[in-house]
Description:
By secondary structure, the chain is of the alpha/beta class. The protein has helices at 2-22, 34-38, 94-109, 179-204, 207-214, and strands at 27-29, 55-60, 69-74, 78-90, 114-116, 125-138, 144-156, 161-173.
Amino acid sequence: xxxxxxxxxxxxxxxxxxxxxxxxxxxxxxxxxxxxxxxxxxxxxxxxxxxxxxxxxxxxxxxxxxxxxxxxxxxxxxxxxxxxxxxxxxxxxxxxxxxxxxxxxxxxxxxxxxxxxxxxxxxxxxxxxxxxxxxxxxxxxxxxxxxxxxxxxxxxxxxxxxxxxxxxxxxxxxxxxxxxxxxxxxxxxxxxxxxxxxxxxxxxxxxxxxxxxxx
Length: 215
């Protein structure tokens, strides 16, 4: 019996080593730095409006988006079903990545600063953002686009009044039909959507606050 045991163990060890060698490493992505350096003061870019109020920012998401998975849909097969890339991940959940990105962009455009909703700092207004979609959508096997959708609510902190609310949506063609293409397109779509969000905030902040801050 012993003479058969050693060959079996050797084969199991070899199989384990082969599986380890062929297992693909997991690629971790975030939004990078290019969007922050390109906006809002890059050449050929329209100047971003100034925000004359202090803001707190928080992005929430539904349970299906509350993970580090990079998700995609097959519009040509079943648009209601989502899939994930097995060997690719976000560095954090999309809501967390968006919170940091939006804070950085709002801080660059604000005269009075921006904080996270969890910081406990009193601000003039709260910006609550509900992420509704953050996926790569394949229209064909080799053509895809990023889809980012969220709903924004502007709330006056002192009165807790809802001053304005709007849904934002942005799509961006992906340069490649893979996870890297998804990351590139989702990052670009997010940056464009954030630009629209800041324009909206500048428009909706009450005039009396702007005058008080500028006086």
